[in-house]
Amino acid sequence: MTDAASAIAPTDYQPAAIEPSVQADWHARQCFAAPDQPTGPHRYVLSMFPYPSGKLHMGHVRNYTIGDVMSRFYRLKGENVMQPMGWDAFGLPAENAAIAHNVAPAKWTFENIDYMRNQLKSLGLAVDWNREVATCTPEYYRWEQWLFVQLYKKGLIYRKLSTVNWDPIDQTVLANEQVIDGRGWRSGALVEKRDIPMYYFRITDYAQELLDDLDTLADGWPQQVIAMQKNWIGRSTGMDITFPSVHGDLTVFTTRPDTLMGVTYVAVAAEHPLAIQASSNNPALKAFCDECRMGSVAEADVATADKKGMATGLFVQHPVTGEDLPVWVANYVLMTYGSGAVMAVAAHDERDFEFAQQYNLPIKQVIATPDDFDISTTAYTERGILINSGEFDGLDFDGVFAALEAKLAPKGQATAKVQFRLRDWGVSRQRYWGCPIPMINCDACGQVPVPEDQLPVVLPTDVVPDGSGNPLAKMPSFYETTCPSCAAPARRETDTLDTFVESSWYYARYASPQYQGGMVDPAAAQSWLPVDQYVGGVEHAILHLLYARFFHKLMRDEGVVQGNEPFKRLLTQGMVLADTFYRTNDAGKKIWFNPADVELDKDEKSRILAARLKSDGQPVEIGGMEKMSKSKNNGVDPQAIIDQYGADTARVFMMFAAPPDQSLEWSDAGVEGAHRFLKRVWRQVNKHLSSEFSTQKNVFRFSQELFPSTLLSAFVSKDLTTDDKDLRRKTHETIAKIESDIHDRQSFNTAIAALMELSNAIGKFEVRNLTNYAVEREALICLLISLSPFAPHMAQTLLHHFDIDLISTTFPAVDPSALVKSTQTIVVQVNGKRRGQLDAPVESSEDELKAMAKALPEVQAFLTGPTKKEIVVKNKLVNLVV
Ligand code: ANZ
Ligand code: ZN
C-alpha cells in the first residue's frame, strides 16, 4: 500500500472520474452486506422505501442521504450497520400508466425499479442490496396473505358493508383521489355512493395500547409526531346517556355530561334508525337524509360544512326533567362516531350554537362564564361551575359526573365510557395492482380463508387494465376455484389489499428477506429488530407509522417478532422547496415554468430581482418558494445535479442547507458552494501530497501504524509550536463536534459547518518543517474521515493516498491532550478600567501574569505610581490598583 501513499491525487476534482469506480469497489468487496446475526454492537438504520414512480425526486435524495450519513457514521464507530432498501411496489399509479400507455403494471413497475435502483446506486448509498425487497412479488406478499388468514381466524379481521365511490360509466370503484369535484377522473361521470362488503382490520382493539405505548417513544420520536398520533387515536372519556322515548330509547355519547341540564334538542345522523323511522312517512325528510348521505364522509369536511338540518317531528324525554325534546336530523352528526346521536347544548358547543341560531332553537346557559364573556354571541365551551341546573347547581365537572352516575346509572340511563376517534381499518380495494385478499366466497359456506398450503394467491402479471373495473373480476382463470371446506365451485375474492398493508411490515422482512419459513426468521428478527433509526417524511406521521406500529403488535401477538414497537428513534425530514415562476394566461389560469427554464437577475445577497423565460427572453412572475411539486412545476431533477456536480456535492448540499427536520430551500448558489468546498479540500490534500516532505518515510509510519490511535506526540518528539497546537486543537474539537452533532443532536448542517472551519484552519496553516507536516497530515486525515459520511466517494479516493482504506478504518478518537488550550487571553485593567490584553501560556503563574501585564506599553502609560494592590483572577484578568 505504500505505493498508493506516494501517489499524488490528480490536480482537479472530477467526481465523474471517481464516483463510479468507488461504487464498483464497494460492490466488488460487498462492503455494506450486513450479517443475518451480527456480533457486537449493531444498528438498523432505515429510510422509508420509495414508491417506484419512475425516477427519484429531491425528497428521496434528502431522505436517503440523511439515512446514509447516519449509517456511515455508525459504521465508522465500529458498529455492524444494516441499511436495506426496497420498493413499495403496488399501487394506483401503475394502473394509471397502464391505461395511458397500454403497458402491464408489472412491467412498468419493474422497469422503474431497475432505473431507480441505478439512480440510488449513483448516490453512493451504503445499502445492503442483497436485502432488496419488492412488495409486488409473491415471495413477499405470500406472508402478508398468511398473516391475513391468521388474523381472520382470530376475528381480528372481519367483513362488513361500507360505502365506496362508484363511477356509473366506467362501472368501477374509485379511490378518493380519483374523484375530482365529485366526478370520475376518467369518465367525468357524477360519482355515486354504493355499499359493498369490505374487509376490516380491528385496529380499534389496539387503540388503548397504541396510545399508551407512545409514552415509551418519547425519547426517540419528535414530540409533534407523538401529538399527531395521540390526536388521531383521539381518546375521549365521557358518558353514554339514554333519553327515553315512545319511539325507542335514544342513547348519545357526550364528553360533557355536566351540560345535561342545558340540552334543548337532540340531533341524529341521517343514517340513524330514528331518522329512517321518521323518514318513512315524510318524503321531504327522506330527501334531506338522502342528500346528507351523498355528502362527504371526511370528518374535516363535516366540521366545516354549513350546518343543515330538519326536524323529525319525533320527541324524546330529558332523563332528569322528563321534558320533551325535539329530535332533529343534522348534517354535522356522524353515524360512525359514538352512537350517531348528540345531546345538543347550544350555549356550550359551537356547532350546536350555530345550528340553534339558524333554526331558532332555544339556547340555555348552564355553566357560569367570566364577567367579560358574551354568551349571546358565542358558545362558552370551557368547563366551570353549574348554574340553572336545579339540584346540580354549584357543582363542578367531576361533581356532576359523579352525581349523574349515581342518579341515572341504576336506571340504566348513564354509563361512563371511553370513546376513540380511531376507526377500524378498511383494507379492501377494488383494484388490480395489489396483493390479492386470500379469501374464497362460497354460496354454501360464506367466506372461507385460503388454506395455508395454497398460499400465495398469485396475482397474474400479464394484465393491462383498461380503466373499466377490476380486471381480476373478469378473469375466470383467476377467480374460479373450489371451496376449501365443501369442495363446491366457489369464487375467489377479487379485491386486493390497501397498499398501506405492505408498507406496514417491510421493515421486519428486511431482517431476513429470503426467508421461506415465515414473515421473518426468528433469529434474524431477534438480532435486528426493532429498527434503531427510522427516517422519513412527516407526511407519514399518522397513517403509515400508526399502521406499522399496529402491525408490529399483531406480529408480536402472532409470535413473529418481539417487543412492542417497531421504530426506536424517528427522524422526520422537512420538505424540499424551490422557487416558482408563472405567467397568467388570457383565461386567468397560471402557467408554471420550471426553474431550469428560467434565467434570473439577482442582487449581491442572491435575492431574485427579475426572472425571464430562457426560450423567449420575456419576463415571468416570481411565485416564491414552494414545496417541489408537479402542480407548481418547480421540481429540480436530482439526476441533473448528480450529472453536473457529482453525488458528493448533491449530498453535501442537501445536508448543509438546513437542519434535517426543517424545510430546505433549493438554491443553485448553495449547490455551487458545496461543490467549491469539496474542490478546496481536494486541492488541500493535493498540495499536502505534493509537498517536499511527502517523501519522508516516517510520515507514512504515522498514517499506517499510528493512526487512528492519535499518538502524534509519539511521532513528533519535538515540542509543538503554538500554531501546531492550535491546529491540533481545532482538529480534535472538530472530531468531538461531529460525533455529538451526528449522534446526539442529528444536526448535520452544523457538522458540515465545522468541517468547513477545519478546512479553513488547514488553509491558514503553514508547513515549514516535518513536524508541521505531520500536524497537517493528522488534520487532513481527520477531516476526510469525518467528511466521509457526507462525501464518501471523495473521502475514500483521497484517504487511499494516505494509505487508509475508508471501509476498514474507524472514526478518529479525540485526543484529550490536544484539546487543552496552550494560551489564553488575559484582560489587563488599571484601577478597574480595561487598558489592554495579553495572550499568556495557560500554565502561567500569578507572578508571571502580573509581570507580563506590567510590561505592556499600553498599560505602563497608566501606571503613574507604585501599585497598591494587584489582583489576579485565574485564566481571566489582572487588575492593577495604583
Ligand atoms: C354534549 C356536549 C356539550 C358536547 C358541550 C360537547 C360540548 P370528542 O371530544 O371529539 O370525543 N358528538 C357525539 N357523537 C357525535 C357524532 N356522532 N357526531 C358528531 N358529534 C358527536 O367529541 C365528543 C362530543 O362530540 C360529544 O360531547 C358530542 O357533543 C359530540 F358543551 O355532547 B357533546
Ligand atoms: Zn363451501
How far apart the termini lie comes to 67 Å
Catalogue the unreliable spans: 1-6
What would you call the shape?
globular
Q: How helix-rich are the residues, as a percent range? A: 25-40%
Structure class: alpha+beta
Q: Strand arrangement, largest sheet? A: 2-1-24-25
Oligomeric nature of the chains: single chain
Q: What is the overall number of helices?
A: 29
Question: Taking Cα atoms only, what radius of gyration do you get, to the nearest Å?
Answer: 35 Å
Number of strands: 35
Largest beta-sheet details: 4 strands, parallel
Q: How much β-strand is present in the residues? A: 15-25%
Overall pLDDT, averaged? 92
What bound compounds does this protein have? ligand ANZ, zinc ion
Q: Would you kindly provide a written description of the structure presented here, covering whatever features stand out?
A:
The protein is 36% helix and 21% strand. The protein has 29 helices and 35 strands. Strands 2-1-24-25 form a 4-stranded parallel beta sheet, covered by helices on one side. The two termini are 67 Å apart. Mean pLDDT is 92; it is low at 1-6. The structure holds ligand ANZ and zinc ion. The site of ligand ANZ has 17 residues, from strand 11 and strand 15.
Summarize the SSE layout with pairings.
Layout: H1 2-6, H2 15-29, E1 42-47, H3 58-76, E2 80-82, E3 86-87, H4 92-101, H5 105-122, E4 133-134, H6 138-154, E5 157-167, E6 172-174, E7 179-180, E8 183-184, E9 192-201, H7 207-212, H8 223-233, E10 235-243, E11 250-254, E12 265-268, H9 273-279, H10 283-294, H11 299-304, E13 309-317, E14 324-330, E15 341-344, H12 350-358, H13 397-408, E16 414-420, E17 425-426, E18 428-429, E19 439-442, E20 446-449, H14 476-479, E21 480-482, E22 489-492, E23 496-497, H15 506-509, H16 522-528, E24 531-537, H17 543-557, E25 567-573, E26 576-584, E27 590-593, E28 598-602, E29 608-613, E30 621-627, H18 638-645, H19 647-656, E31 664-665, H20 668-689, H21 697-706, H22 712-715, H23 722-745, H24 748-764, H25 770-787, H26 792-800, H27 816-819, E32 823-830, E33 833-841, H28 846-855, H29 857-860, E34 869-873, E35 877-881
Parallel strand pairs: 1-2, 1-24, 3-4, 12-14, 24-25, 26-31, 32-35
Antiparallel strand pairs: 5-6, 5-9, 7-8, 9-17, 10-11, 10-16, 12-15, 13-14, 18-23, 19-20, 19-22, 21-22, 26-27, 26-30, 28-29, 32-33, 34-35
Helix pairs in contact: 2-26, 3-19, 4-5, 9-10, 18-19, 19-20, 20-24, 23-24, 23-25, 24-25, 25-26
